[in-house]
Write a structure and sequence with these properties.
Elements: H1 4-13, H2 25-58, H3 63-89, H4 98-131, H5 142-163, E1 169-171, E2 177-179, H6 187-221, H7 227-261, H8 265-283, H9 285-295, H10 298-321, H11 338-341
Antiparallel strand pairs: 1-2
Subcellular location: Cell membrane
Membrane topology: Multi-pass membrane protein
GO molecular function: G protein-coupled receptor activity
Length: about 375
């Protein structure tokens, strides 16, 4: 017997699925682990990344705008993870109303495609800075970055409004209300999936590959760049493309596979686990973004070494103050300045040199 509230919701959405016997065990085992891991690591990492992006904006660096927008998209998804966690632990049974399901689903897809959009912006900005440092100056301004950011957000919001006009809650064979899942997929989803694959994955992949290949060519021909620095740049570029492929590649490939082959419950049941593993891979993008585009720079690493030393110093002060019989008597090292002894969070030098972005406008500081 279906509860009245559930029946009312299904009738409202008019989106009852076929009674496919889907095994949701992967959501109860693997998904919670991934969600908790990404939440614990991603929240502080993106908060620090947001602060670092703010410092770049404060220094009039257009790349800070892209980094802040990228981080905001990641944080929105991270804040929605508790709802997805509860959904997974309840055997894929959505206990909230349909509006919240739609909001969480929109945030999920927004995170994927807004992240992809700003990753492309960052790669193109770095390409123009390194390969054409003087030719396209007008495209590398704060105003241009703000306009591009508004266009990306507006485009994705309009796309979601166009796509998510259908009821997003449906009922499975176990009378569970599933959110953003249809088995087999609906006919209207086929064209949407093809669009996501081409515009949301293939085209951005082409832009990333084009931009970073251009950067690598310039780095390779640069006689003034040290060999060690060239290796670091190559590793960073290859890591960026690799993580993009790992996080977004399997998911978009399976979107096409589902659109081409999923027309019955039998295929839906077979591909369910693989598809949801690919969807979980997109979640790791929230952790990879701040690591690749902020914390991988040498200047940021030095800032976090200072932050670590500062925290250890504070902990040492606290531990010593709690012992009444051992008053705090610290001596300063004569060779160290006061600025070096008490570094602050991402403390900036007086000349503002540290406010540059993770990839500066010349090859040697990429």
């Amino acid at each position: 017997m279906i509860p009245r509230e559930k029946q009312k919701m299904v009738n409202f959405t008019e989106n009852v699925t076929e009674k496919c016997n889907i095994n949701h065990n992967i959501h109860e085992t693997l998904s919670p682990v991934v969600y908790i891991f990404v939440f614990i690591l991603g929240l502080p990492a993106n908060c620090l990344s947001l602060y670092y992006g703010y410092l770049q904006i404060k220094a009039k660096n257009e790349l800070g705008i892209y980094l802040c927008n990228l981080t905001i998209a990641d944080l929105l998804y991270i804040f929605s993870l508790p709802f997805w966690l509860q959904y997974a632990l309840q055997h894929d049974n959505w206990t909230y109303d349909e509006l919240l399901c739609k909001v969480c689903g929109i945030i999920l897809y927004e995170n994927i495609y807004i992240s992809v959009g700003f990753l492309c912006c960052i790669s193109i900005d770095r390409y123009l800075a390194v390969v054409h440092p003087f030719r396209f100056q007008r495209f590398r301004t704060m105003k241009a970055a703000a306009i591009v950011s508004i266009i990306i957000w507006a485009k994705e919001i309009m796309t979601c409004c166009f796509v998510f006009t259908h009821g997003e809650i449906s009922m499975d064979a176990e009378s569970h209300l599933v959110c953003f899942e249809h088995y087999p997929i609906k006919k209207w989803e086929h064209n949407v999936n093809y669009y996501r694959f081409s515009a949301g994955f293939l085209f951005p992949l082409f832009l990333l590959a084009f931009s970073y290949c251009g950067i690598l060519r310039v780095v390779h021909k640069s006689p003034g760049t040290q060999k060690k620095k060239k290796i670091q740049i190559k590793r960073l570029v290859s890591s960026t493309v690799f993580i993009f492929l790992v996080c977004f590649g399997p998911y978009h490939i399976l979107l096409v596979v589902r659109s081409l082959l999923e027309n019955n419950c039998s295929f839906a049941e077979k591909i369910f686990n693989v598809y949801h593993i690919s969807l979980l891979l997109t979640t790791f993008n929230c952790v990879a973004d701040p690591v690749l585009y902020c914390f991988s720079s040498e200047s940021t690493y030095q800032n976090f070494v200072k932050l670590r030393d500062s925290c250890l110093t504070c902990l040492g002060h606290l531990n010593t103050e709690t012992k009444e019989s051992y008053p705090l008597n610290t001596t300063e090292t004569p060779n160290r300045t006061q600025h070096e002894q008490q570094p602050g969070l991402l403390q900036m030098p007086p000349d503002g040199a540290e406010t540059k972005d993770c990839f500066t406008t010349n090859v040697d500081s990429l």
